[in-house]
Amino acid sequence: MSWGFETEPEYQAKLDWVAQFVKDEVEPLELVLGHPADVRNPRRAALVKPLQQEVRRQGMWACHLGPELGGQGYGQVKLGLLNEILGGALYGPSVFGCQAPDSGNAEILAHYGTPEQKKKYLEPLLNNDIVSCFAMTEPQGGADPGVFKTRAVREGDNWVISGQKWFASHARYAEFLIVMAVTDPDAPVMQRMSMFIVPANAPGLEIMHDYGFATEKEPNHGHLNFDKVRVPLDAMLGKEGDAFVVAQVRLGGGRIHHAMRTIGEARRALNMMCERVISRSTKGELLANKQMVQEKIADSWIELEQFRLLVLRTAWLVDKHKDYKKVRKDISAIKAMMPKVLHDIASRALHLHGSLGITQEMPFTHLVMQSYHIGLADGPVEVHKVTVARQLLREFKPSETQFPSYHLHTRREAALAKYKEALDKLDNEV
User: What CATH number should be reported for the domain whose range is 132-241?
Assistant: First the structure.
């Protein structure tokens, strides 16, 4: 039997380097630069590119990718431990070449792109010379693909795309978009759509408006209009009707990475909370000495560690089975739990900082808003809870008797029948 909670020393040494590097070199970037996706900003290039080169020298660049694409091909456990550190810094994923949505889009291109598309888009994407956008949800619905209206119609040697996409993150910075569109409206929902690569400068593609979270410095999530946008036939990624098959390439592992990054964000909030309560006094004593404050600290640590173990166990299961379908319940569970953990810990940290906690001088309002974001992205919490319940219920069979299998009277009668001979013998001896 093999069971343990330790990281092998060689990889732990790498993680130790990452943690120090992120603290010293990466965390300060968010205080002097704009959005991480703004790769055309010369200030970003001047400060970020040297750090990316150092990450490459350390062999920690794009570790989610295989060696053929310049990565290390790490399994999900190693990736999870790495992303836990990166999640605490806004620029962490970009400096280490694993930023969303580019990481997932790169994997799609690696699997389904033509040689020409890989040369034009994949290579510069892997180098973080360009960024990309994943356009799936629409104004009228996101969690229900059955209501998607954006169409792609074949006309000669082209696909013509018309419709709107909603909350397409990084669209304003993107060199290209990966777009889901209906190609067969009469097919079952899961076979109704196909995936396309669309250049950001394609005629007919317009960013109607950019939206941002309430706490974001600049809007970054595009409301897009496709007005008869033409792309060649080979712009389709995968086969016709395979949009959801293509999408799964980027979703399974990505949810584990996002969960571990969320842990990094929550741990940062917990650390701030702890520093604050041992530094601030009121009513003649430190906040840390007050029992209701101690309760908040304890609840936060327990909640965080419980979630962390669930995520790492899920990552371990993915590495073991090499099949996301076998871990579907577990992945949905961490996706459903993730927003609550971040919300609870960030809210406690905000509260214990008093009026300072709600100002723009502290990150807590952003983290609280972020908790709502991750509760909606990649499927809302409710969808994933339904998946957990359905997957769990498949493991059970209905009772075939009048009373449940755990009915005490029925069980007692069965136990008495099972041990009747032994009990009768004991009774006779008495």
Answer: 2.40.110.10
